[in-house]
Structure prediction request, 99 residues.
Amino acid sequence: MFANAAKPLRFDKPNEIETERILLPNRSADRGNDLWKTFNRTQENLIKGNVRYDRYNEEGRYQGRGHTRGVKSIDGNVKLNQALWTLAEEMAKLKTSVD
Prediction:
């Protein structure tokens, strides 16, 4: 849920990127489904880039593999991190209100 909500913060066409790929851990310590580990994996994969995805044209024909690019600007990095943190805080509030 968190990674899916985070995709539009980074991508103009968020549906092109599979949420599961954003959630792939880059190290064994990142495995787990708590909010903190999900936040860390999402943050790292959105900022560093290199998330693989399949590209399709407007007719739905497969056009090959692509990969996301990393955030290069400091401003972009700060804005994305702030937005991700705000999203994580809101998710934590929702979880707390449900429990």
